[in-house]
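Quick start: read one record
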Amino acid sequence: MSELAMIQQQFYDFVTKGSAADGLIATGDLKIYARMYASRLHDAIAGDYPKLQNRLGHDEFASLVYRFIVAHPPQSFTLRDAGLKLGRYLRSSADASVGVWAAELAELERARVECFDARDAAPLQQDAVAALGDALPDLVLRWVPASAMVTLTTNVDDIWSAIEDGTDVPAVALAQRVVLVWRRATTVVHRTLDDDEAALAPMMIAGATFTEVCDVLATQHGEQAAPRAVELLLRWLQAEALDDTLVARSV
């Protein structure tokens, strides 16, 4: 390694990891660069995880971000990915003291970021489904590409909503649930699924026919499976959560 390369590596390690700066020469305080680096990353990550920052508080969140970027220094050219692994980090033993709820809240917020940036697709329209007539059983239902499922063991979906609405934030509680996140036009939304919807949701990532949806619902609703399937279909259509690219393939 050349002397210049060694100096560059030493400077990089000092700025990103706090390593020793012995031998480095600068006209000003080298710590300014380290503080600037950490500050820019903090701001970028805070922008993606506002609800987590709200619950942890500014100081604890700043401390978390510092520990995170030391453990996972950015590998991408874009600040968009600076906090990509924060949820995974919070689940690790390295920061388990923060709590599982924090990891799940981070995962929910990250899913919203990913859905905002996901590719566009026209949503399936109710008129198109009505026009299928007898071909409805073969209609393939699939979530829009700008969607994600988040499985929770706590009530962080309620916590997220309370912060967003400015209402009293509930205490963390255990709660098994599945949240569907998707982008509707230019707005990202999410909704906690009913239990029977949650059972269907994984199937609909790859695509499931209306008949297959009815078969799954039959295990829970018996003879009421078909009406429930229609009810859910209308709900998904009105929410613009279904991809329309498979309609032609279904008929």
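The first strand starts at residue 140 and ends at 141.
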